[in-house]
Amino acid sequence: METYAFGARVEAIKRRAHGQWSGILRALGVDEKILNRRNQPCPLCGGTDRFQYTDKYGEGNYHCRGCGPGGGFKLLQGIQGWDFGTILTRVEQCVGGISAAVSRPGEPSPDRMKKLAKRIWNEAQPVRQGDEVDRYLRNRGLSLSNFPRVLRFHPALGYYEKDNAGKSLKIAEYPAMLACVQAAEGDAVTLHRTYLNDGHKALAISAKKVLSAGINGAAVRLFEATDTLAIAEGIETALAVHVRTGKPVWAAISAGNMERLWLPEIVQHVCIYADNDADNQYDGQACAFALARRLKKAEKKAGARHVEVYVPRHAGSDWADVWRLHLENDRQLA
Ligand SMILES: [Zn+2]
After folding, report:
1. What is the CA radius of gyration of the chain?
2. C-alpha separations of 254 from 19, 163, 300 in Å
3. What is the CATH number of domain 2-102?
4. Which residue spans of the chain are classified as CATH 3.90.580.10?
5. 6 CA from centroid of ligand 1 (Å)
6. Distance, CA 42 to ligand 1 centroid (Å)?
7. What is the pLDDT of residues 174-222, one digit of tens each?
8. Residue 111 binned pLDDT confidence (cut-offs 50, 70, 90)
9. Phi-psi category of 90—alpha, beta or left, where left has phi over 0 and alpha has psi -120 to 50?
10. How much is the pTM?
11. What is the dihedral of CA 39, 44, 46, 48, to 10 degrees?
């Protein structure tokens, strides 16, 4: 009976400690350097670079080529020399404290996201000729003399990925193009980030990131809407539409968000520049036409709006691709 109770207590502590181990180890006096995830001497058996703390499974995991793999309990035992009963009690005290303080967040609150977005925005600066954002846009065939104020250049933006325990880890820093995403009332709901490397998108798996999933009809308002407004999905495509047509343009960021897009009432002429996703699942076209349909249906209530949808001819292309090819062809002919 006593054994059972002890086992249950250990299980309960393990459950509560899961995903919290880096904090627990720190709180119980393990040196920050041991937890820095780099190869180094093993705190248990020595050597030069045989040890690495990974927290791979959220159990304070480490691996050592000398004494083998282990987790937070074993690490504490080896470093502090405590017996298992002591360790259990100390960790138990810790997780009591941690879970009371943090309450295990799944996603950060919208309020925290807004604060984070604001901080990042303030670290960035307006785009200027010759900076990394300008270089990137030029490489995409987009030469602008004036840059929209909703775009900014961040010289070194942290790139994060979630580990197995769901904790965000900084993988690298890249220069980045930031785009302010504005909701109907004009307040910034989030930032769209394009990580850059040497004038191109960084070779990360997803070079584009939005700080939150719920952008719900918000847009990157690259140019002020007049009675005419062009809409495109991506920021680069939207800029290409502006360069080519001179129309004010907003970027919807994603196909899914396009059909929900909020448009000001003064806009009477809407030109939707769809992506051709015929090579995939037709998302680009479907969402562009869904927006067109929504606007035409709403027409009965509001005034008559003129809505046009333009789709590039070739599967897998957007309007930025089309016009870049034109330019290249023109150059070859010249
Ligand atoms: Zn070792």
Report:
1. 26
2. 32, 26, 27
3. 3.90.580.10
4. 2-102
5. 29
6. 5
7. 999 999 998 887 878 888 999 998 888 886 545 556 655 467 788 999 9
8. confident
9. alpha
10. 0.65
11. 0
